[in-house]
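Key result, reporting period 2: structure in, sequence out.
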């Protein structure tokens, strides 16, 4: 998996199995955020692809991608975009495969524009919208894992173990505070 900024492979999969999740974004400049979704999917062994599919610069490609998604067996599409972030909503308009929207931080409005563009969908065309930036990208991937876990018990066990590890890390934070507390201080 490339972590270089502003580069995404045209298509990548984590295994020689059918692609289950599409990770798409409006520009390679979104990759620094969206690779956090890719990292989670890799960690859980989910076969995915990463592609730039710009709603504004490649509208025909975007529609083709959405129209093919169900027949290709995609379980979810994680779509990230910034600014006038129409990609998640327009994908959702053309497919019933669940679309998980990630607002990418934008240059001038810090991603609030992206968030509003993605979350304010009209009734009837849902986009599950996540937090702005890397937390949203990671959580969208975890959400996709949770969707798949419903029919894959081994994945459910992995997700439970992930949560348990996270809990232990959070508990250990208190011990770290105690260690670094000033003389006589209480943590
Ligand atoms: C959006 O415009 C993309 O999702 C990206 O967040 C933003 C800027 O794109 P570039 O000008 O960096 O290609 O479509």
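The corresponding designed sequence is given below.
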């Amino acid at each position: 998996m490339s972590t270089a900024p502003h580069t995404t492979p045209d298509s990548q999969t984590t295994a020689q199995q059918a692609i289950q999740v599409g990770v798409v974004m409006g520009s390679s400049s979104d990759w620094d955020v969206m690779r956090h979704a890719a990292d989670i999917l890799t960690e859980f062994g989910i076969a995915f692809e990463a592609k730039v599919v710009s709603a504004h610069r490649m509208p025909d490609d975007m529609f083709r991608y959405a129209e093919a998604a169900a027949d290709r067996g995609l379980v979810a599409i994680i779509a990230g975009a910034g600014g006038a972030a129409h990609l998640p909503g327009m994908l959702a308009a053309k497919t019933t495969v669940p679309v998980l929207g990630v607002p990418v931080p934008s240059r001038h409005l810090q991603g609030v524009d992206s968030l509003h563009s993605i979350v304010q969908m009209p009734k009837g065309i849902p986009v599950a919208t996540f937090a702005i930036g890397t937390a949203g990208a990671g959580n969208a991937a975890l959400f996709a894992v949770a969707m798949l876990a419903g029919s894959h018990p081994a994945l459910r066990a992995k997700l439970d173990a992930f949560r348990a590890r996270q809990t232990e890390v959070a508990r250990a934070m208190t011990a770290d505070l105690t260690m670094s507390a000033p003389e006589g201080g209480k943590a």
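The first strand starts at residue 21 and ends at 25. The chain has six helices and five strands. This case is discussed further under Risks and Mitigation.
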